[in-house]
Specification:
There is one protein chain. By secondary structure, this protein is α+β, with helices and mostly antiparallel strands. The chain has one domain. Helices cover 41% and strands 10% of the residues. The chain contains three helices and three strands. Strands 1-2-3 form a three-stranded antiparallel β-sheet, with no helix packed on it. A hairpin with a 5-residue loop joins strand 1 and strand 2.
């Protein structure tokens, strides 16, 4: 969660800083973002930020959740995207799922 959880966040105008060397650090406008539901949710954010485009749920499921059944694997990208969106208080239907 953001350091100031009461302040709404505009996902379109925020500067997102992601550092992956020496452990993951995510900052939005200089404020540390914490509260990710899992390491795979963190990996999903990093992957989406690096590729800067939408991906089919099946591709994300195969990339990050290949150890799960097909039904479970297809469920996790959507749930993780919704949890990430909740950290930023954005509508996940705006391209997150």
């Amino acid at each position: 969660m953001l350091d100031q959880p009461d302040k709404p966040v505009s996902a379109l105008s925020d500067v997102l800083e992601i550092t992956t060397l020496g452990g993951l650090s995510v900052r939005s406008n200089g404020k540390l973002v914490t509260g990710f539901v899992s390491r795979k949710a963190e990996a999903l954010l990093v992957y989406l930020a690096c590729t800067r485009r939408q991906h089919a749920r099946e591709i994300l499921a195969d990339l990050l959740w290949d150890d799960r059944s097909a039904d479970q694997a297809l469920h996790y990208p959507c749930q993780s995207a919704k949890a990430i969106a909740a950290l930023y208080r954005v509508d996940p239907s705006d391209g997150w799922t």
